[in-house]
Amino acid sequence: MARKGGTDKIKGKAKEMTGKVTGDREKEAEGHLDQARGEAKKTMGKAQETARSERRDRT
Fold first, then answer.
1. In whole angstroms, how far apart are CA 6 and each of 11, 15, 32?
2. How far is CA 51 from CA 5, 42, 44, in A?
3. Tens-place pLDDT, residues 5-56
4. 31 exposed, middle or buried (CB, 10 Å; 0-12, 13-18, 19+)?
5. According to the 3-state scheme, what is the secondary structure of 1-59?
6. 0.85 surpassed by pTM
7. In which region does residue 38 sit, left (phi positive, over 0), alpha (psi from -120 to 50) or beta (all else)?
């Protein structure tokens, strides 16, 4: 299964660093938001995998 949220986290880190280097606080904030979105997707993916696994174990 593909790692969910990884792309968002990487993209967010790049935006954050670009914002820091250029002094663009809005870009930096967007980067933080993308990273948080990626972490949320990752957590949701883990929860879905756990739910699927538990359903399989019950049958």
1. 9, 14, 14
2. 18, 14, 11
3. 889 999 999 999 999 999 999 999 999 999 999 999 999 999 999 999 888 8
4. buried
5. CCCCCHHHHHHHHHHHHHHHHHCCHHHHHHHHHHHHHHHHHHHHHHHHHHHHHHHHHHC
6. no
7. alpha
Instruction: Judge whether 19 and 36 are in contact, CB under 8 Å.
Output: no
Q: At which residue do the structure tokens 């968002």 appear?
A: 8
Kindly report, residue by residue over 4-13, the tens digit of the pLDDT. 788 999 999 9
